[in-house]
Amino acid sequence: MVTVVFNGIQMVFLLYTRNYIVYLLLQIGATLVGNIASCWYGRRKYHHLLEHQHKSLPKEEFRGLFSNIRDVFTYKVGSTILSSIDNIIISILLGTILIGSVTNQVMLIGYGFLFIRLVIDNLTASIGNLTVLENAAKKEKVFNELVFMSNWLAGVMGICLAVLIGPFIILWIGPEYAVSDSIVIVLVLGAYIMVVNQVVSLFRSSMGFLREARFAPLAAAVLNVALSVWLGQLWGLFGVYLATIIAYGCTVFVMDGILVVGRGLGKPAWGYFGRQFGYFFVSAGTYLLVWWLHGLLPLAGWGGWIIGAVFCFLLCNLVFFLVFGRTTAFRHLSTRLKELVGARFGKKGNGAGNHE
């Protein structure tokens, strides 16, 4: 609620004062107020935790804890550099104006994949419990289900965004703000590969592979700079974004897969990478089919765009169901979802019956 209020205040100040410094100061103030409010609420609600004197951690445990925090910090710094470096490279090589030309597309793609990121983030605690309490067979089973789920969700979202963003931008703010389909595809692909790796990254963290992966994002950032300079000169904006995908795929994506599958689950990592590439090729083929059929539809205006969006969504899911409907991962995941839905509605039904 506090975030919503401060975002509203920021928008009002920016619209009426047109002072970006004030906007940034309000953003800093909102963060400080949020942290203070969280601290106050925690101390008030869990005050009993502060009433007891606790012994200091043994030196060995403290060293281990400090080492884990250092490794996580190193990983986060590398991830921040990797996610921020594209705009710097584009500004140096191609000009700052080009960054603004794709801002709307980047924003829409980010918001589109945000839903999937939130769904996967909510699994963090469950994955942690799974890796601590369950046996290897159960871990592998759930891991395969979640990887399949993330690929399905990211595939459908990515295809719909790649097909629909261009017409949306033209209807929304005009054709002069549209970019080529190749730029949209490479932007979607960059978001896609990071989302499908999110589940694997959560498993890696919960399995304790913090030290082994701490330099992976930094390596990706260094490789990204080298590739961006080369590919950017060859293919411009497309080459810079493609370099990021290659750098991330060759470092973070590969490292997470080897650590989780090879060391954590004790299975050959090549099988996991084979499945990931299989999911990707199915998504790529589905995109070509949806893009072709969508182009044949006589659509115009916002009504036509909405019809096209529904068509893309339904066709993507239909193709995925036809391809994956008989796989073990799909059967296990659908059974699990049916159990969750049944349990939720069963509790509501029992509650209503008891009330009567």
Task: Outline the structure in words.
- The protein is an all-alpha fold.
- It has a domain at 86-324.
- The protein contains 14 helices and no strands.
- The protein has helices spanning 2-17, 20-45, 59-93, 96-101, 103-121, 124-133, 136-173, 181-196, 198-206, 216-235, 237-264, 269-296, 301-324, 328-355.
- The two termini are 36 Å apart.
Question: Which features does this protein show?
Answer:
0% strand, mainly alpha, 356 residues
Brief sketch in words of this structure:
The protein has about 350 residues and is mostly helical.
Distance between the termini: 36 Å
Provide a count of the helices: 14
**Shape by Cα distribution:** globular
* Low-pLDDT segments, ≥5 res: none
Topology:
Blueprint: H1 2-17, H2 20-45, H3 59-93, H4 96-101, H5 103-121, H6 124-133, H7 136-173, H8 181-196, H9 198-206, H10 216-235, H11 237-264, H12 269-296, H13 301-324, H14 328-355
Helix pairs in contact: 1-2, 3-10, 3-11, 5-7, 5-8, 7-8, 7-9, 7-12, 7-13, 7-14, 8-11, 9-11, 10-11, 12-13
